[in-house]
UniProtKB/TrEMBL annotation:
Keyword check for Membrane: yes
Protein name, entry field: Uncharacterized protein
Database matches in InterPro entries: DUF247_pln
Origin: domain of life: Eukaryota
Transmembrane segments: 29-56
Pfam families: DUF247
UniProt KW keywords: Membrane, Transmembrane, Transmembrane helix
């Protein structure tokens, strides 16, 4: 069991995740701002898609 715990702790993925959580997500406001940034990015991409869709497929009158 100790070998498994050491293997888990020495994994690059888990060390990277721990550093990320410690350095960048140490307050709730940081987490909220990242979530808000992803939401805004998604909405921007959605607006871009609909703008291009309307250009290439104009509504028929």
């Amino acid at each position: 069991m100790i070998v498994d715990v050491n293997k888990y702790c020495n994994s690059k993925t888990h060390r990277w995740r721990a550093v990320l959580a410690r350095d960048y997500f140490n307050s709730p406001w940081a987490i909220i701002s990242v979530v808000a940034a992803f939401i805004l990015l998604g909405l921007t991409l959605l607006q871009t898609f609909y703008t291009m869709y309307a250009y290439y497929h104009p509504p028929s009158s």
